[in-house]
Amino acid sequence: MAEQTSRLRLRLRQAAEKHQQQIDHLVGEPGPLVRGTFGTRARVCGVAGCKCARGELHKSKCLSASQEGRMRQVHVPAGDEMEVQDGVQRYRRFREVRAELAEIAKEELALAEQLGLSLLKPYPPGNPLPPPKRRGRHKGGRGVSR
Questions:
Q1: Each residue of 107-116: pLDDT tens digit?
Q2: What SS3 state is found at 63?
Q3: pLDDT digit string (tens) for 61-102?
Q4: Angle CA(93)–CA(13)–CA(11) in degrees, nearest 5?
Q5: Angle at 74 between CA 99 and CA 68, to 5 degrees
Q6: pLDDT at position 23, please?
Q7: Could you give the angle at the alpha carbon of 18 between the alpha carbons of 16 and 23, nearest 5°?
Q8: Is-contact 86 97, C-beta < 8 A?
Q9: 107: left (phi over 0), alpha (psi -120 to 50) or beta
Q10: Distance between CA atoms of 17 and 107, rounded to whole angstroms?
Q11: Cβ–Cβ contacts within 10 Å for residue 52, how many?
Q12: 128: which of 34, 35, 122, 144 fits an S-S bond (Cβ 3.0–4.6 Å)?
């Protein structure tokens, strides 16, 4: 039992270190963050003698993002391209780190639960009380408690 408890403590400390690293990354983000996808849009202008009528489409940079359930695109001027592209990359990384932080938090909670169970001492010795049952919802949902 002592060996398992020691391993659980070590794993919990390691998870806490990973957690702190992710927090440090989020707090250290200088910004600005730009939500959306940065890309190139090619289109036809509709003027009969234009090069786009021969297949050489007009290209421009744009930022795409959903707004109220619909996809919206906005033109990005040439002078703003690098700033927007960097902001989009920082936003994507910020979201990834945030998702990693959520996974680490789940792991920490599971390890804390296991550690608590490993530290339980059955009492009274002859007829001990059972370990606590899990409360709340099953992983499958439906609101049925165990």
A1: 999 999 999 8
A2: strand
A3: 999 999 999 999 999 999 999 999 999 999 999 999 999 999
A4: 95
A5: 55
A6: 94
A7: 90
A8: no
A9: alpha
A10: 12
A11: 15
A12: 122
